[in-house]
Amino acid sequence: MQFIGSQPTVDLTYSDVFLVPRRSAVTSRLEVDLSPGDGTPATIPLVAANMNAVTGPRLAATIARRGGLGVLPQDLSVERLAAAVRWVKRQPVACDSPFVLPADATAGDALGLLPPVAGYGVVVASTGAAAADDADPAAGGLRREEILGVIPADRLAHVPGDARLGDLIHGRRPGVELAALGAGRDAFDAVRAETGADGAGGTDGPEERDDPAVVFDGDRLAGTVTARGALRGGIYRPALDADGRLAVAVAVGINGDPAAKARALADAGADVLVVDTAHGHQDGMIRALAAVADLDLGLPIVAGNVVTADGVRDLVEAGTSIVKVGVGPGAMCTTRMMTAVGRPQFSAVLEAAQAARELGAHVWADGGVRYPRDVALALAAGAESVMIGSWFAGTIEGPGGLRVDADGRHYKESWGMASTKAVTARFGALDAYERARKELFAEGISSSKIYLDPQRPGIEDLLDMITSGVRSSFTYAGARSLAEFHTRAHVGLQSAAGYEEGKALPVSW
Ligand SMILES: NC(=O)C1=CN([C@@H]2O[C@H](COP(=O)(O)OP(=O)(O)OC[C@H]3O[C@@H](n4cnc5c(N)ncnc54)[C@H](OP(=O)(O)O)[C@@H]3O)[C@@H](O)[C@H]2O)C=CC1
Ligand SMILES: Nc1nc2c(ncn2[C@@H]2O[C@H](COP(=O)(O)O)[C@@H](O)[C@H]2O)c(=O)[nH]1
Ligand SMILES: [K+]
């Protein structure tokens, strides 16, 4: 990366800078390979943050299906984390994890899981079967004859809240076979034929629908798929482990016995370990990291957070190959206002990435991403991947409960991992005095509403938006790969007015 024009004399964040277009020999945005070269199984440079409001098993599985990584947060017991890892490993790669409800559940129950939007649906199972499946998730899944059908989520807006789901299914459809779901056009056509979107089964009028179809793997329910999902299957490459299962990362903190926790999670199948604390450049972190690295588990280790070259060097020396960078940029984070500590994120990533490169290590940029452009700029600064928290909390797959505000808008709650809410939960086992001492140091917001974008309510919609923006950034720089982008990116400094000019204008001026 190179600055054009004047060299910066102060530290910068994403809004302070812009990318300059260059002569390019890349003729299509689809020629661009976004894979990070950090030794993880990711094929796109996006990571869902280890926050309780952001990464649960469903979001982790969904982002891995499209090539990113989800980091399950450290604030859960080893047993719960191991169970979450195993759940991700059981999920289908070629279709979506289903939302399943029993036939006697109501439309209102379904709307507690999903907003009434296109592209999603609830699989309805015979009542006893759904209950048995819930009780024993390892039983191998629901059988074909136990599945009554799938109800598109947008249809739920037009039925009474107390309508029984079983009564809303009219006739069984054959479903799609998992084995028939290749990539690209064949899968797309198979889904459209099953859902009637190709015209053969009769559509609901001129507007193209994107209804989900049920997918079976032999005798068992595998999941659901939409035509858009099939299309994505031809564009993205999933992040997989050596056995072809979806990849997942897990965080461990620096207190307790991080090595024992790391070993248990590796045994459960975790693919990447993230050793994480607010102030990563401290002896407690170096001890914890060295203990985890000494296990020699053969997994990539990520550690942070730091914002200086010195911090990078110490963590790499302690055994990490990926350093997580960012103090204070996060949307839920009050560290900069409480402590004055931190560093504008673009410069932090730039300096850390330079130091990491000299040591053969890598950097993940963590926090402060609000637009696709911020991801492009973090990559230009030298990051191998970009971690996103709060933005992903407001998605259907996010672990939070779906809520509706007084105006009928759907949202999920987000909170910081150093907020009073998180600290109270983390130290619930301590006595009241010790807990109160810990709560004194809260450095995060305890509750924030993250609205679902009605046009992009799912994590995959956000991935589409971000990766298409970033693919385009690469071609503007004439880069086919992330390594080329790192060297070819030309960056300029802009005024606040220059940044403002770049925004779209929703109403006339
Ligand atoms: N990227 C960022 O800007 C930040 C991220 N976070 C996130 O919040 C989560 C919780 O992290 P964390 O608060 O570190 O909790 P942890 O449970 O990981 O514990 C941190 C340990 O470090 C000690 N410590 C010393 N100095 C500090 C300091 N300045 N800030 C925090 N701990 C310190 C603490 O002791 P004692 O409590 O006795 O001081 C404690 O033993 C993590 O996921 C972290 O990434 C939190 C803040 C900033
Ligand atoms: N200072 C704090 N930082 C926090 C807290 N919870 C999370 N974080 C950091 O934010 C990023 C995610 O950033 P976002 O802008 O995408 O939301 C996360 O990975 C942590 O590093 C907190 O309570 N305090
Ligand atoms: K902030």
TrEMBL record:
Residues 12-503 form the IMP dehydrogenase/GMP reductase domain. Coiled coil: none annotated. Pathway: Purine metabolism; IMP biosynthesis via salvage pathway. NADP(+) binds at residues 276-278, 326-328. One of its GO terms (cellular component) is cytosol. It catalyses: IMP + NH4(+) + NADP(+) = GMP + NADPH + 2 H(+). Involved in the purine-salvage pathway. Catalyzes the NADPH-dependent conversion of GMP to IMP. This is GMP reductase. The lineage of its organism: Bacteria, Bacillati, Actinomycetota, Actinomycetes, Micrococcales.
